[in-house]
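Record now logged underneath.
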Amino acid sequence: MLDIRTYDARTGGNIAYKAFSHPLAAERLAALARMLRDRGPVAIYDPAGHARTLLALLPEGMQVEGIYVHDCEKVGQPTPAGLTRPLADLPHAPVRAVWALDFEHERVCIRLRDILPDGMDIFTLADARLPDDMLTVAGAYLNRLNFATNYAFFRDAGGLSTRLVTTNYWARYGAGDVRIWLRLFGCDGRPLASWVEGPFAPEQSIVLDSAEVRRRFGLAAFTGQLFIHVLGVAGHDIVKYALEIHGDAASHTLSVTHDANAWPAERYANLPAPRQGEQVILWVQNSHAVPVPARAMALGRMGHDMLVPIDRTIGPYETVGVCVNEYLPHASWPEQLEFHGGHHVVRPRYEIRADTGTRIAHLNVERSDLAHDPGIVTLPPRFFGRGYLLPFPVPDPARYRTTLQPAPMSHALQTLPVRIDCFDEEGQPSGSRFLGCLTRGHEIAQDLSEVTGRAGHGELVYDFREGGQADGWLHALIRYEDLLTGHVAETSFGAHIFNTVMTYRNEPQSYSGPPPGLTTRLFLQAGAGQAPSFCHLIYPVSATWHDSSETVLSLHDEKGAKIAEQQVSIPARGSVTLWPHRVFGVDAIAHSGTGGYVMIRDQSCRLFGYHGRLRDDGVFSLDHMFGF
Protein backbone atom coordinates (compact mmCIF):
# COMPACT_ATOMS: atom_id res chain seq x y z
CA MET A 1 0.00 0.00 0.00
CA LEU A 2 1.22 3.50 -0.82
CA ASP A 3 2.16 5.09 2.50
CA ILE A 4 0.37 8.41 2.16
CA ARG A 5 -2.23 10.39 4.07
CA THR A 6 -4.96 11.72 1.81
CA TYR A 7 -8.39 12.32 3.37
CA ASP A 8 -10.45 11.46 6.40
CA ALA A 9 -13.81 12.70 7.59
CA ARG A 10 -12.44 14.27 10.77
CA THR A 11 -9.60 16.42 9.45
CA GLY A 12 -10.59 16.69 5.78
CA GLY A 13 -8.12 16.52 2.93
CA ASN A 14 -4.35 16.59 3.26
CA ILE A 15 -3.57 19.48 0.92
CA ALA A 16 0.14 18.65 1.05
CA TYR A 17 -0.74 15.39 -0.72
CA LYS A 18 -2.29 17.36 -3.58
CA ALA A 19 0.70 19.71 -3.65
CA PHE A 20 3.16 16.79 -3.97
CA SER A 21 1.09 14.73 -6.43
CA HIS A 22 0.27 17.53 -8.88
CA PRO A 23 1.92 16.57 -12.21
CA LEU A 24 3.82 19.86 -12.46
CA ALA A 25 5.01 19.59 -8.87
CA ALA A 26 6.04 15.96 -9.45
CA GLU A 27 8.30 17.07 -12.31
CA ARG A 28 9.93 19.69 -10.10
CA LEU A 29 10.31 17.31 -7.17
CA ALA A 30 12.04 14.79 -9.44
CA ALA A 31 14.57 17.44 -10.55
CA LEU A 32 15.13 18.54 -6.95
CA ALA A 33 15.62 14.95 -5.78
CA ARG A 34 18.24 14.36 -8.50
CA MET A 35 20.12 17.46 -7.34
CA LEU A 36 20.03 16.32 -3.72
CA ARG A 37 21.06 12.79 -4.61
CA ASP A 38 24.28 14.12 -6.09
CA ARG A 39 25.20 15.51 -2.66
CA GLY A 40 25.10 12.17 -0.89
CA PRO A 41 22.98 11.40 2.16
CA VAL A 42 20.50 14.18 3.00
CA ALA A 43 18.96 15.13 6.32
CA ILE A 44 15.26 16.03 6.21
CA TYR A 45 13.75 18.63 8.52
CA ASP A 46 10.02 17.92 8.70
CA PRO A 47 8.26 20.78 10.53
CA ALA A 48 4.71 19.87 9.43
CA GLY A 49 4.76 16.07 9.16
CA HIS A 50 5.00 15.87 5.36
CA ALA A 51 7.93 13.45 5.07
CA ARG A 52 6.00 10.19 4.89
CA THR A 53 3.71 11.38 2.09
CA LEU A 54 6.48 13.15 0.21
CA LEU A 55 8.89 10.20 0.22
CA ALA A 56 6.11 7.86 -0.98
CA LEU A 57 5.36 10.16 -3.93
CA LEU A 58 8.90 11.20 -4.79
CA PRO A 59 9.54 10.27 -8.45
CA GLU A 60 13.33 9.98 -7.92
CA GLY A 61 14.96 8.07 -5.08
CA MET A 62 17.57 9.49 -2.71
CA GLN A 63 19.44 8.47 0.42
CA VAL A 64 17.95 9.96 3.59
CA GLU A 65 20.29 10.15 6.59
CA GLY A 66 17.46 10.91 9.03
CA ILE A 67 14.27 12.88 9.60
CA TYR A 68 14.38 15.67 12.19
CA VAL A 69 11.51 17.38 14.02
CA HIS A 70 11.26 20.31 16.43
CA ASP A 71 8.23 19.02 18.39
CA CYS A 72 9.70 17.03 21.28
CA GLU A 73 6.52 14.95 21.55
CA LYS A 74 7.08 13.70 18.00
CA VAL A 75 10.67 12.60 18.53
CA GLY A 76 11.06 8.82 18.19
CA GLN A 77 8.10 8.24 15.88
CA PRO A 78 8.60 5.73 13.05
CA THR A 79 9.16 7.01 9.51
CA PRO A 80 10.33 5.40 6.25
CA ALA A 81 13.86 6.57 7.22
CA GLY A 82 13.89 5.37 10.83
CA LEU A 83 12.74 7.03 14.03
CA THR A 84 12.42 10.80 14.02
CA ARG A 85 15.25 12.68 15.67
CA PRO A 86 15.35 15.98 17.58
CA LEU A 87 16.14 19.06 15.52
CA ALA A 88 18.77 19.97 18.11
CA ASP A 89 20.87 17.04 16.80
CA LEU A 90 20.76 18.21 13.18
CA PRO A 91 23.97 20.29 13.34
CA HIS A 92 25.89 17.07 14.09
CA ALA A 93 24.42 15.06 11.20
CA PRO A 94 27.08 13.70 8.78
CA VAL A 95 25.52 15.38 5.73
CA ARG A 96 26.30 18.21 3.33
CA ALA A 97 22.67 19.26 2.82
CA VAL A 98 19.41 19.48 4.69
CA TRP A 99 16.04 19.40 2.94
CA ALA A 100 13.50 21.42 4.90
CA LEU A 101 9.98 20.39 3.93
CA ASP A 102 8.49 23.86 3.81
CA PHE A 103 7.27 25.75 0.74
CA GLU A 104 8.39 29.13 2.17
CA HIS A 105 12.16 29.23 1.67
CA GLU A 106 13.05 32.32 3.66
CA ARG A 107 10.91 31.39 6.64
CA VAL A 108 12.60 28.05 7.21
CA CYS A 109 16.09 29.38 6.44
CA ILE A 110 15.73 31.97 9.21
CA ARG A 111 14.89 29.15 11.62
CA LEU A 112 17.85 26.97 10.62
CA ARG A 113 20.56 29.38 9.51
CA ASP A 114 22.23 29.95 12.89
CA ILE A 115 22.16 26.36 14.11
CA LEU A 116 23.70 24.70 11.06
CA PRO A 117 27.44 24.44 10.56
CA ASP A 118 29.21 26.18 7.70
CA GLY A 119 29.02 24.24 4.46
CA MET A 120 25.65 22.59 5.16
CA ASP A 121 23.29 23.80 2.44
CA ILE A 122 19.57 24.34 2.98
CA PHE A 123 17.09 23.21 0.37
CA THR A 124 13.32 23.64 0.71
CA LEU A 125 10.16 22.82 -1.22
CA ALA A 126 10.13 26.27 -2.80
CA ASP A 127 11.53 24.82 -6.02
CA ALA A 128 8.55 22.44 -6.19
CA ARG A 129 5.93 25.18 -6.00
CA LEU A 130 3.47 25.71 -8.83
CA PRO A 131 3.86 28.93 -10.81
CA ASP A 132 2.40 31.97 -9.08
CA ASP A 133 -0.20 32.45 -11.83
CA MET A 134 -1.69 29.07 -10.91
CA LEU A 135 -2.32 30.07 -7.28
CA THR A 136 -5.71 31.28 -6.17
CA VAL A 137 -4.52 32.30 -2.68
CA ALA A 138 -1.02 33.61 -3.27
CA GLY A 139 -0.10 34.18 0.38
CA ALA A 140 -0.86 30.67 1.62
CA TYR A 141 0.52 27.98 -0.67
CA LEU A 142 -1.19 25.01 1.02
CA ASN A 143 -4.58 26.68 1.01
CA ARG A 144 -7.13 24.17 -0.30
CA LEU A 145 -8.35 26.64 -2.94
CA ASN A 146 -4.95 26.44 -4.61
CA PHE A 147 -5.52 22.76 -5.34
CA ALA A 148 -9.01 22.36 -6.79
CA THR A 149 -7.94 19.27 -8.72
CA ASN A 150 -9.38 16.02 -9.98
CA TYR A 151 -8.98 13.30 -12.60
CA ALA A 152 -11.31 12.08 -15.34
CA PHE A 153 -11.29 8.90 -17.39
CA PHE A 154 -10.84 10.23 -20.93
CA ARG A 155 -11.02 8.22 -24.15
CA ASP A 156 -11.35 8.76 -27.86
CA ALA A 157 -10.79 5.39 -29.51
CA GLY A 158 -12.62 2.48 -31.12
CA GLY A 159 -15.70 4.50 -32.02
CA LEU A 160 -16.09 5.71 -28.41
CA SER A 161 -15.69 9.30 -27.27
CA THR A 162 -15.85 11.11 -23.93
CA ARG A 163 -17.57 14.33 -22.96
CA LEU A 164 -16.95 16.03 -19.60
CA VAL A 165 -19.56 18.61 -18.62
CA THR A 166 -19.76 21.00 -15.68
CA THR A 167 -20.27 24.72 -15.09
CA ASN A 168 -18.50 27.63 -13.45
CA TYR A 169 -20.31 27.18 -10.17
CA TRP A 170 -17.43 28.83 -8.27
CA ALA A 171 -18.65 32.22 -9.51
CA ARG A 172 -21.60 31.79 -7.17
CA TYR A 173 -19.14 32.00 -4.26
CA GLY A 174 -17.41 35.09 -5.60
CA ALA A 175 -14.79 33.64 -7.96
CA GLY A 176 -13.68 35.94 -10.77
CA ASP A 177 -11.11 34.72 -13.31
CA VAL A 178 -11.86 30.98 -13.41
CA ARG A 179 -9.67 28.95 -15.75
CA ILE A 180 -8.73 25.27 -16.02
CA TRP A 181 -5.22 23.89 -16.42
CA LEU A 182 -5.39 20.47 -18.08
CA ARG A 183 -2.99 17.65 -18.83
CA LEU A 184 -4.00 14.61 -20.87
CA PHE A 185 -2.08 11.41 -20.24
CA GLY A 186 -2.10 8.60 -22.78
CA CYS A 187 -2.49 4.92 -22.06
CA ASP A 188 1.25 4.56 -21.36
CA GLY A 189 1.22 7.48 -18.92
CA ARG A 190 3.10 9.92 -21.12
CA PRO A 191 1.64 13.44 -21.46
CA LEU A 192 -0.17 13.94 -24.76
CA ALA A 193 -1.12 17.58 -24.27
CA SER A 194 -1.19 20.34 -21.64
CA TRP A 195 -3.31 23.46 -22.04
CA VAL A 196 -5.51 26.03 -20.34
CA GLU A 197 -9.23 26.57 -20.96
CA GLY A 198 -11.05 29.77 -20.05
CA PRO A 199 -11.56 32.20 -18.52
CA PHE A 200 -15.18 31.26 -17.95
CA ALA A 201 -18.02 33.67 -17.29
CA PRO A 202 -20.16 33.19 -14.17
CA GLU A 203 -22.41 30.14 -14.54
CA GLN A 204 -20.94 29.41 -18.00
CA SER A 205 -21.03 25.76 -19.00
CA ILE A 206 -17.72 23.95 -19.36
CA VAL A 207 -17.53 21.19 -21.96
CA LEU A 208 -14.41 19.13 -22.69
CA ASP A 209 -14.95 16.83 -25.65
CA SER A 210 -12.38 14.13 -26.40
CA ALA A 211 -12.95 14.34 -30.16
CA GLU A 212 -12.37 18.10 -30.14
CA VAL A 213 -9.22 17.68 -28.01
CA ARG A 214 -7.97 15.03 -30.40
CA ARG A 215 -8.49 17.30 -33.40
CA ARG A 216 -6.97 20.34 -31.71
CA PHE A 217 -3.70 18.63 -30.84
CA GLY A 218 -3.51 16.23 -33.77
CA LEU A 219 -3.56 13.16 -31.56
CA ALA A 220 -3.95 9.52 -32.45
CA ALA A 221 -6.65 7.46 -30.73
CA PHE A 222 -6.17 7.42 -26.96
CA THR A 223 -7.50 5.89 -23.76
CA GLY A 224 -6.09 7.64 -20.73
CA GLN A 225 -6.84 10.16 -18.03
CA LEU A 226 -7.31 13.89 -17.85
CA PHE A 227 -5.84 15.82 -14.92
CA ILE A 228 -8.00 18.86 -14.08
CA HIS A 229 -6.84 21.86 -12.04
CA VAL A 230 -9.38 24.66 -11.73
CA LEU A 231 -7.71 28.02 -11.09
CA GLY A 232 -9.26 31.05 -9.43
CA VAL A 233 -11.93 29.15 -7.48
CA ALA A 234 -13.89 30.35 -4.47
CA GLY A 235 -16.13 28.64 -1.94
CA HIS A 236 -14.73 25.12 -2.18
CA ASP A 237 -12.10 23.06 -3.94
CA ILE A 238 -14.33 20.21 -5.13
CA VAL A 239 -14.33 19.64 -8.90
CA LYS A 240 -17.66 18.09 -9.91
CA TYR A 241 -18.63 16.95 -13.36
CA ALA A 242 -20.70 14.54 -15.41
CA LEU A 243 -18.80 12.25 -17.78
CA GLU A 244 -20.55 10.84 -20.84
CA ILE A 245 -19.26 7.97 -22.97
CA HIS A 246 -20.77 8.05 -26.46
CA GLY A 247 -20.52 5.40 -29.15
CA ASP A 248 -20.83 5.95 -32.87
CA ALA A 249 -24.15 5.60 -34.68
CA ALA A 250 -23.84 1.82 -34.95
CA SER A 251 -22.84 1.37 -31.31
CA HIS A 252 -25.02 0.43 -28.38
CA THR A 253 -22.82 2.50 -26.07
CA LEU A 254 -24.17 5.44 -24.11
CA SER A 255 -23.10 5.82 -20.50
CA VAL A 256 -22.90 8.61 -17.98
CA THR A 257 -20.81 8.46 -14.85
CA HIS A 258 -20.10 10.80 -11.98
CA ASP A 259 -16.98 12.74 -11.07
CA ALA A 260 -14.00 10.97 -9.58
CA ASN A 261 -13.35 11.26 -5.86
CA ALA A 262 -10.12 13.26 -5.87
CA TRP A 263 -8.58 11.38 -2.91
CA PRO A 264 -7.08 7.92 -3.56
CA ALA A 265 -8.55 5.29 -1.25
CA GLU A 266 -7.33 1.98 0.09
CA ARG A 267 -10.34 0.03 -1.22
CA TYR A 268 -13.26 0.46 -3.60
CA ALA A 269 -16.54 -1.44 -3.83
CA ASN A 270 -19.66 -1.54 -6.06
CA LEU A 271 -17.76 -3.61 -8.61
CA PRO A 272 -20.21 -6.20 -10.00
CA ALA A 273 -19.13 -9.68 -11.03
CA PRO A 274 -19.86 -10.51 -14.70
CA ARG A 275 -23.05 -12.17 -15.85
CA GLN A 276 -22.93 -15.00 -18.38
CA GLY A 277 -21.64 -13.54 -21.65
CA GLU A 278 -20.28 -10.36 -20.06
CA GLN A 279 -16.71 -9.15 -19.77
CA VAL A 280 -15.93 -6.73 -16.93
CA ILE A 281 -12.96 -4.42 -17.45
CA LEU A 282 -11.64 -2.48 -14.46
CA TRP A 283 -9.85 0.65 -15.66
CA VAL A 284 -6.88 1.10 -13.33
CA GLN A 285 -5.28 4.53 -13.73
CA ASN A 286 -2.17 5.34 -11.72
CA SER A 287 -2.73 8.78 -10.22
CA HIS A 288 0.91 9.44 -9.35
CA ALA A 289 4.36 9.96 -10.85
CA VAL A 290 5.69 6.82 -9.13
CA PRO A 291 5.07 3.29 -10.47
CA VAL A 292 2.62 0.92 -8.83
CA PRO A 293 4.62 -2.22 -8.01
CA ALA A 294 3.36 -5.56 -9.22
CA ARG A 295 1.05 -7.20 -6.65
CA ALA A 296 0.48 -3.88 -4.82
CA MET A 297 -3.19 -3.92 -5.89
CA ALA A 298 -5.65 -6.80 -5.88
CA LEU A 299 -9.17 -8.01 -6.60
CA GLY A 300 -11.32 -10.14 -4.34
CA ARG A 301 -14.82 -11.35 -3.58
CA MET A 302 -16.67 -9.19 -1.10
CA GLY A 303 -16.74 -10.90 2.29
CA HIS A 304 -13.89 -13.30 1.48
CA ASP A 305 -10.30 -12.98 2.66
CA MET A 306 -8.56 -14.36 -0.41
CA LEU A 307 -7.22 -11.72 -2.79
CA VAL A 308 -5.85 -12.09 -6.30
CA PRO A 309 -2.99 -9.60 -6.84
CA ILE A 310 -2.69 -7.62 -10.07
CA ASP A 311 0.59 -9.12 -11.21
CA ARG A 312 2.10 -6.33 -13.28
CA THR A 313 3.79 -3.01 -12.65
CA ILE A 314 1.76 0.04 -13.65
CA GLY A 315 3.88 3.00 -14.66
CA PRO A 316 3.41 6.64 -13.69
CA TYR A 317 -0.01 7.89 -14.86
CA GLU A 318 -0.46 4.71 -16.90
CA THR A 319 -3.94 3.37 -17.74
CA VAL A 320 -4.48 -0.39 -17.70
CA GLY A 321 -7.66 -2.30 -18.48
CA VAL A 322 -7.78 -5.22 -16.04
CA CYS A 323 -10.08 -8.04 -17.16
CA VAL A 324 -11.92 -9.14 -14.03
CA ASN A 325 -13.01 -12.40 -15.71
CA GLU A 326 -9.37 -13.47 -15.98
CA TYR A 327 -8.44 -12.64 -12.41
CA LEU A 328 -11.61 -14.06 -10.84
CA PRO A 329 -12.77 -16.65 -13.41
CA HIS A 330 -15.33 -18.26 -11.09
CA ALA A 331 -16.98 -15.04 -9.91
CA SER A 332 -20.42 -14.38 -11.36
CA TRP A 333 -23.33 -12.02 -10.80
CA PRO A 334 -24.81 -11.36 -8.27
CA GLU A 335 -21.51 -11.67 -6.43
CA GLN A 336 -19.90 -8.38 -5.43
CA LEU A 337 -16.21 -7.66 -5.77
CA GLU A 338 -13.70 -5.41 -4.04
CA PHE A 339 -10.79 -3.57 -5.57
CA HIS A 340 -7.87 -3.06 -3.21
CA GLY A 341 -6.30 0.02 -4.79
CA GLY A 342 -3.76 0.71 -2.05
CA HIS A 343 -4.05 4.53 -2.36
CA HIS A 344 -2.62 4.40 -5.89
CA VAL A 345 -5.71 5.50 -7.85
CA VAL A 346 -8.63 7.89 -7.54
CA ARG A 347 -12.09 6.39 -7.91
CA PRO A 348 -11.76 4.05 -10.91
CA ARG A 349 -14.26 3.16 -13.61
CA TYR A 350 -15.38 -0.24 -14.76
CA GLU A 351 -16.68 -1.19 -18.18
CA ILE A 352 -19.03 -4.06 -18.98
CA ARG A 353 -18.97 -5.44 -22.50
CA ALA A 354 -21.83 -7.60 -23.71
CA ASP A 355 -23.69 -8.42 -26.91
CA THR A 356 -26.28 -5.76 -26.03
CA GLY A 357 -23.65 -3.01 -25.81
CA THR A 358 -20.95 -1.50 -23.66
CA ARG A 359 -21.59 0.47 -20.49
CA ILE A 360 -19.33 2.19 -18.01
CA ALA A 361 -19.86 3.18 -14.38
CA HIS A 362 -17.80 4.08 -11.33
CA LEU A 363 -16.76 2.31 -8.16
CA ASN A 364 -17.23 3.95 -4.76
CA VAL A 365 -14.78 4.58 -1.94
CA GLU A 366 -14.92 1.96 0.78
CA ARG A 367 -14.38 3.89 4.00
CA SER A 368 -11.65 2.84 6.42
CA ASP A 369 -12.62 5.31 9.16
CA LEU A 370 -16.14 4.06 9.98
CA ALA A 371 -17.32 1.65 12.64
CA HIS A 372 -20.68 0.44 13.92
CA ASP A 373 -22.79 3.39 15.07
CA PRO A 374 -25.25 2.18 17.74
CA GLY A 375 -26.98 5.57 17.63
CA ILE A 376 -28.51 4.73 14.25
CA VAL A 377 -30.35 1.74 15.74
CA THR A 378 -32.02 3.97 18.32
CA LEU A 379 -32.74 7.07 16.24
CA PRO A 380 -36.06 8.45 17.58
CA PRO A 381 -38.74 7.87 14.90
CA ARG A 382 -40.47 11.07 16.09
CA PHE A 383 -37.45 13.06 14.91
CA PHE A 384 -36.07 10.99 12.06
CA GLY A 385 -38.83 8.68 10.81
CA ARG A 386 -37.20 5.98 8.69
CA GLY A 387 -33.78 7.61 9.11
CA TYR A 388 -31.21 7.01 6.40
CA LEU A 389 -32.69 6.63 2.89
CA LEU A 390 -31.10 5.71 -0.44
CA PRO A 391 -33.60 6.91 -3.11
CA PHE A 392 -33.48 5.51 -6.64
CA PRO A 393 -35.75 5.61 -9.70
CA VAL A 394 -38.11 2.79 -10.59
CA PRO A 395 -39.14 3.32 -14.23
CA ASP A 396 -42.19 1.56 -15.66
CA PRO A 397 -41.76 -2.12 -14.68
CA ALA A 398 -43.56 -3.15 -17.87
CA ARG A 399 -40.59 -1.82 -19.90
CA TYR A 400 -37.61 -1.74 -17.53
CA ARG A 401 -36.26 -4.20 -15.01
CA THR A 402 -34.82 -2.43 -11.96
CA THR A 403 -32.47 -4.50 -9.81
CA LEU A 404 -30.99 -3.31 -6.52
CA GLN A 405 -27.97 -4.83 -4.80
CA PRO A 406 -27.08 -3.49 -1.31
CA ALA A 407 -23.33 -3.01 -0.94
CA PRO A 408 -21.10 -2.83 2.16
CA MET A 409 -19.05 0.33 1.85
CA SER A 410 -16.74 0.37 4.87
CA HIS A 411 -13.98 -1.98 5.96
CA ALA A 412 -15.57 -2.86 9.29
CA LEU A 413 -19.16 -3.49 8.16
CA GLN A 414 -20.21 -7.13 8.53
CA THR A 415 -24.02 -6.93 8.30
CA LEU A 416 -26.58 -5.08 6.19
CA PRO A 417 -30.05 -5.09 7.82
CA VAL A 418 -32.12 -3.52 5.05
CA ARG A 419 -35.58 -3.08 3.55
CA ILE A 420 -36.84 -1.59 0.28
CA ASP A 421 -39.83 0.80 0.40
CA CYS A 422 -41.45 1.79 -2.90
CA PHE A 423 -43.61 4.80 -3.76
CA ASP A 424 -45.48 5.78 -6.89
CA GLU A 425 -45.03 9.17 -8.54
CA GLU A 426 -47.70 10.71 -6.29
CA GLY A 427 -45.87 9.60 -3.16
CA GLN A 428 -48.23 6.76 -2.27
CA PRO A 429 -46.70 3.50 -0.95
CA SER A 430 -46.56 0.88 -3.72
CA GLY A 431 -44.74 -2.01 -2.07
CA SER A 432 -42.15 -2.96 0.50
CA ARG A 433 -39.79 -5.89 1.07
CA PHE A 434 -37.48 -6.78 3.96
CA LEU A 435 -34.28 -8.22 2.48
CA GLY A 436 -33.00 -9.56 5.79
CA CYS A 437 -29.92 -8.98 7.90
CA LEU A 438 -27.50 -9.58 5.04
CA THR A 439 -23.93 -10.70 5.51
CA ARG A 440 -20.97 -8.80 4.07
CA GLY A 441 -20.56 -11.39 1.33
CA HIS A 442 -24.25 -11.70 0.41
CA GLU A 443 -25.30 -12.46 -3.17
CA ILE A 444 -28.73 -10.81 -3.27
CA ALA A 445 -29.90 -8.60 -6.12
CA GLN A 446 -33.57 -7.71 -5.74
CA ASP A 447 -35.76 -7.39 -8.85
CA LEU A 448 -38.09 -4.48 -8.05
CA SER A 449 -40.85 -5.90 -10.23
CA GLU A 450 -41.36 -8.41 -7.40
CA VAL A 451 -41.91 -5.50 -4.97
CA THR A 452 -43.93 -2.98 -6.99
CA GLY A 453 -45.85 -2.88 -10.25
CA ARG A 454 -45.88 0.91 -10.56
CA ALA A 455 -43.42 3.51 -11.79
CA GLY A 456 -42.00 5.86 -9.19
CA HIS A 457 -39.06 5.33 -6.93
CA GLY A 458 -37.70 3.06 -4.23
CA GLU A 459 -35.80 3.75 -1.02
CA LEU A 460 -33.31 1.41 0.62
CA VAL A 461 -33.53 1.83 4.41
CA TYR A 462 -32.18 0.19 7.55
CA ASP A 463 -34.43 -2.39 9.22
CA PHE A 464 -33.22 -3.95 12.47
CA ARG A 465 -36.03 -6.47 13.06
CA GLU A 466 -33.48 -9.32 12.90
CA GLY A 467 -30.63 -7.37 14.49
CA GLY A 468 -27.55 -6.19 12.66
CA GLN A 469 -25.42 -3.10 12.65
CA ALA A 470 -25.20 0.16 10.72
CA ASP A 471 -22.51 2.72 9.98
CA GLY A 472 -24.49 5.43 8.16
CA TRP A 473 -22.71 4.71 4.85
CA LEU A 474 -25.48 2.59 3.28
CA HIS A 475 -24.85 2.04 -0.44
CA ALA A 476 -26.27 0.05 -3.31
CA LEU A 477 -25.75 -0.73 -6.97
CA ILE A 478 -28.89 -0.17 -9.04
CA ARG A 479 -29.11 -1.75 -12.48
CA TYR A 480 -31.65 -0.84 -15.18
CA GLU A 481 -32.39 -3.15 -18.10
CA ASP A 482 -34.61 -2.38 -21.07
CA LEU A 483 -36.74 -5.52 -21.50
CA LEU A 484 -37.34 -4.67 -25.16
CA THR A 485 -33.78 -3.95 -26.35
CA GLY A 486 -31.66 -5.57 -23.64
CA HIS A 487 -29.68 -2.35 -23.12
CA VAL A 488 -28.43 -1.86 -19.54
CA ALA A 489 -27.35 1.12 -17.43
CA GLU A 490 -26.31 1.18 -13.80
CA THR A 491 -25.45 3.57 -11.02
CA SER A 492 -24.46 3.48 -7.36
CA PHE A 493 -24.74 5.87 -4.48
CA GLY A 494 -25.21 6.15 -0.70
CA ALA A 495 -27.93 7.03 1.80
CA HIS A 496 -28.66 10.23 3.70
CA ILE A 497 -31.27 11.44 6.15
CA PHE A 498 -33.61 13.63 4.11
CA ASN A 499 -35.78 16.58 5.08
CA THR A 500 -36.03 16.48 8.87
CA VAL A 501 -36.06 19.46 11.20
CA MET A 502 -33.76 17.68 13.67
CA THR A 503 -30.19 16.72 12.81
CA TYR A 504 -28.04 13.67 13.55
CA ARG A 505 -24.29 14.07 13.25
CA ASN A 506 -23.95 15.80 9.85
CA GLU A 507 -27.37 14.80 8.48
CA PRO A 508 -29.39 16.06 6.63
CA GLN A 509 -26.38 17.12 4.58
CA SER A 510 -26.10 20.32 2.60
CA TYR A 511 -24.04 21.07 -0.50
CA SER A 512 -23.12 24.37 1.15
CA GLY A 513 -23.21 25.35 4.79
CA PRO A 514 -23.94 23.24 7.88
CA PRO A 515 -26.85 20.79 8.26
CA PRO A 516 -29.78 20.66 8.02
CA GLY A 517 -29.38 20.76 4.25
CA LEU A 518 -32.96 21.46 3.29
CA THR A 519 -32.25 23.05 -0.09
CA THR A 520 -31.52 21.79 -3.59
CA ARG A 521 -29.27 22.95 -6.41
CA LEU A 522 -28.76 20.30 -9.12
CA PHE A 523 -27.17 20.48 -12.55
CA LEU A 524 -28.81 18.91 -15.62
CA GLN A 525 -27.61 19.05 -19.20
CA ALA A 526 -30.27 20.49 -21.47
CA GLY A 527 -29.30 18.91 -24.77
CA ALA A 528 -31.85 17.22 -27.00
CA GLY A 529 -30.75 16.05 -30.45
CA GLN A 530 -30.24 12.34 -31.01
CA ALA A 531 -30.09 11.54 -27.29
CA PRO A 532 -32.30 13.94 -25.30
CA SER A 533 -31.40 14.57 -21.65
CA PHE A 534 -33.78 13.73 -18.85
CA CYS A 535 -33.75 13.51 -15.09
CA HIS A 536 -35.73 11.56 -12.52
CA LEU A 537 -36.26 13.90 -9.61
CA ILE A 538 -37.22 12.42 -6.22
CA TYR A 539 -38.56 14.17 -3.10
CA PRO A 540 -37.48 11.77 -0.31
CA VAL A 541 -38.69 12.42 3.24
CA SER A 542 -37.28 10.56 6.23
CA ALA A 543 -39.92 11.82 8.69
CA THR A 544 -42.43 14.60 7.96
CA TRP A 545 -41.80 17.69 5.87
CA HIS A 546 -43.69 19.92 3.41
CA ASP A 547 -46.49 18.24 1.47
CA SER A 548 -44.94 19.22 -1.85
CA SER A 549 -41.79 20.77 -3.24
CA GLU A 550 -41.42 24.30 -4.62
CA THR A 551 -39.00 23.50 -7.40
CA VAL A 552 -37.75 26.02 -9.95
CA LEU A 553 -36.18 24.89 -13.24
CA SER A 554 -33.96 27.53 -14.86
CA LEU A 555 -32.72 27.05 -18.42
CA HIS A 556 -29.31 28.62 -19.06
CA ASP A 557 -27.49 28.99 -22.33
CA GLU A 558 -23.90 27.85 -22.71
CA LYS A 559 -22.63 31.29 -21.61
CA GLY A 560 -24.55 31.02 -18.34
CA ALA A 561 -27.37 33.44 -19.12
CA LYS A 562 -30.82 32.45 -17.91
CA ILE A 563 -33.24 32.24 -20.84
CA ALA A 564 -36.34 30.57 -19.36
CA GLU A 565 -37.82 29.39 -16.08
CA GLN A 566 -40.53 26.95 -15.06
CA GLN A 567 -41.90 25.71 -11.75
CA VAL A 568 -42.84 22.16 -10.80
CA SER A 569 -44.24 20.66 -7.64
CA ILE A 570 -43.40 17.14 -6.47
CA PRO A 571 -45.46 15.47 -3.73
CA ALA A 572 -43.62 14.40 -0.59
CA ARG A 573 -42.21 10.89 -1.21
CA GLY A 574 -43.13 11.34 -4.87
CA SER A 575 -41.08 11.78 -8.01
CA VAL A 576 -41.20 13.09 -11.56
CA THR A 577 -39.35 12.45 -14.82
CA LEU A 578 -38.37 15.73 -16.49
CA TRP A 579 -37.36 16.23 -20.11
CA PRO A 580 -35.90 19.72 -20.70
CA HIS A 581 -37.04 19.80 -24.34
CA ARG A 582 -40.61 19.10 -23.22
CA VAL A 583 -40.53 21.55 -20.31
CA PHE A 584 -39.01 24.46 -22.26
CA GLY A 585 -39.64 23.48 -25.87
CA VAL A 586 -37.28 22.26 -28.56
CA ASP A 587 -36.55 25.77 -29.85
CA ALA A 588 -35.46 27.03 -26.42
CA ILE A 589 -33.18 24.04 -25.95
CA ALA A 590 -31.63 24.64 -29.37
CA HIS A 591 -31.13 28.29 -28.47
CA SER A 592 -29.28 27.31 -25.29
CA GLY A 593 -26.45 25.81 -27.39
CA THR A 594 -24.45 22.62 -27.05
CA GLY A 595 -23.52 23.48 -23.46
CA GLY A 596 -26.96 24.62 -22.35
CA TYR A 597 -28.12 23.34 -18.99
CA VAL A 598 -30.93 23.39 -16.47
CA MET A 599 -30.34 24.42 -12.87
CA ILE A 600 -32.81 22.73 -10.53
CA ARG A 601 -33.34 24.86 -7.44
CA ASP A 602 -35.53 24.34 -4.38
CA GLN A 603 -35.20 26.30 -1.15
CA SER A 604 -37.91 24.36 0.69
CA CYS A 605 -36.48 20.81 0.67
CA ARG A 606 -33.62 18.65 -0.49
CA LEU A 607 -34.38 16.68 -3.64
CA PHE A 608 -32.36 13.82 -5.06
CA GLY A 609 -31.97 13.25 -8.77
CA TYR A 610 -30.67 10.95 -11.48
CA HIS A 611 -29.78 12.17 -14.96
CA GLY A 612 -29.41 10.41 -18.26
CA ARG A 613 -29.95 10.40 -22.00
CA LEU A 614 -32.19 8.30 -24.23
CA ARG A 615 -31.66 7.59 -27.92
CA ASP A 616 -34.46 6.77 -30.33
CA ASP A 617 -33.27 3.15 -30.53
CA GLY A 618 -33.71 2.71 -26.75
CA VAL A 619 -30.05 3.03 -25.80
CA PHE A 620 -29.91 5.06 -22.57
CA SER A 621 -27.71 6.19 -19.69
CA LEU A 622 -28.49 6.86 -16.04
CA ASP A 623 -26.46 8.04 -13.04
CA HIS A 624 -27.04 10.18 -9.96
CA MET A 625 -26.84 13.95 -10.41
CA PHE A 626 -24.41 16.32 -8.76
CA GLY A 627 -25.15 19.54 -6.94
CA PHE A 628 -23.34 22.57 -5.62
The chain has ten helices and 43 strands.
